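Hi R.,

Here are the chain sequences for the assembly we discussed:
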Amino acid sequence: MSLAHDAPVTVGRATKTQRPARTWPEINNPAAWAVAAILLIMPLIASSFFLIEIFATTLILGTMALSLMFLAGYGGMVSLMQLTIAGFSAYMVAVFGVSGNANISLGWPWWLAVPMALALATAFGTLGGALAVRTEGIYTIMITLAIGAAFYYFTNQNWAIFNGHTGINNVATPRFWGVNWRADIPFYYVVLAVAALCYFAVEYVSRAPFGLALQGVRDNPRRMAALGFNVNAHRVAAYAFASFVAALAGVLQVWNYRQISPGSVSVGACIDVLIIAVVGGITRPIGPYIGALIFVLLRTFALDFLVRLGLDGNRFRLLIGLGFLAIVFWSSDGVIGLWQRWRQHQRREVGRASGGGRHG
Amino acid sequence: MDSVAQRLSAVGAGAALELRGVTRLFGALAALTDVTITVRPGERRAVLGSNGAGKTTLFNCITGDFPPSSGTIRFFGEDVTHFPPYERIRRGLRRTYQISALFPGLTVQDNVYLACRGVSRGRFSFLRPGQNDALMHAADNLVQAVHLSAVKDQRVAELAHGQQRQLEIALALAGAPRFVLFDEPAAGLSPTERAELIEILTSLPAHIGYIIIEHDMDVALRVVESVTMMHNGRIFKEGLPQEIQSDPEVQELYLGGGHE
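And here is the predicted structure of the full complex:
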């Protein structure tokens, strides 16, 4: 019954072969293969400090920022509560699983506590999203920041479940098949696997009907409704998906530090996630990981660097702030944007050189 | 009483679109006042009127972009007055916008694919469409029908104005439309593009009715069989194109008197 069958200019199946295959764009990219190979053999080249403190931490923070990138880049919704969802998930792992606070933790095995934490954190994020989608722009930022701030103060003051400002310590990490999965090398691979899964899931979904429709909602919500889409339902579903990604990162976070306290879910930390995503670039899923690497490197080494310059080492945030300002000032699309512009420039130079040679 | 209500609903059942006493207020301003229109299935009608006559507000009420302040709207007999826009669209209503309302960050193909997906199942699907995806074929065919195959992998932000207007129409023709509202589809088009537009409109399957808002009488009167004239938010006159064109009151009001 579609118009196309009656349309005068239909040529039928001829178009089939012209369509570019909607497969993985990365498969043809040698740089992506190189990065994947380096990440896989990282334990051979990196010390355990670099492996965990730099790369695993980068991948965990990057995955949290990835959940924001999905909402902001594809959905046009800047949510400042992604870290809060991760933190909630981390708390739930500690509460349902085994920890040093036996009066709080229920002592479930990790394979029960983790799904429970993921489910609850996803539900939490979806509910927050259902509130946030009633607003747009700056109000979305405000309402999600309010949720983040409320959770931070709640964890500070609630002793029955969240153990107040001390938080929950000595959280047990999984051991099975004779492997201690929190030992540096196994843990690195667990983190790498989860981060890769999230990265590819976001990349894949962005070209699936759900992700395309989300980008349609970002570009023109009114038209999406006029095409038959329930815009708010789509937005809430996007929050649910992003919450699940953030919740996965939260589980890794609590296993990484073996403890969770209100300091990890502070308002400042919520904003760090935004900075990471914006610095890296929010138009593509790789951006948050690049941003996270820059953030972690600065956080770890800026102190020494500043001390060497004769400045107070505690001012490392000043460096992060200046870097943030510089990147946002010169590229609205973070480091990816800078990179893409540089590549285009190079190509133009090459084109000019070869073109000139031919004509001259 | 019962029989009157039954007879009224029976009248509505035969119409594609039936508006009864539709009024739309913006604060104290009445953009539409007591508009009653009945359009048969397959009927093609022009809505004429000067700026501010309420034409686009009429469309917004029909699609639910703005709900009417009072009155009822029936679509193929079903009372859709309080339906959200997407529910009306899923029932076969379509519209285009006076100012192109597209997805500039996506390609032409993806724009049309979204339109096809919006009126079918799997809107939330997490699976990418495969090589033999039926909706992808439907999108290909629609892109071809509006002469955009050459630019289908370009982002919409890079298209020329005329191409965006054509895409605007393609989005409204996805799936199985039963009735389409065209809001000034010829705005800003070149003479060649107007000819293409007329060809697209006249070659629509006969069961698809539409209402078209169009200032260009050459376009409007070649593609419709009836005309509704609006003025200050009210229906001013209804009739055949020739009647409206030769009506002295209409000429005075809209055509500026000296139109030949």
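Residues 116 and 204 of chain B are 17 Å apart (CA to CA). Chain B touches chain A through 56 residues (CB under 8 Å).

Let me know if anything looks off.

Best,
T.
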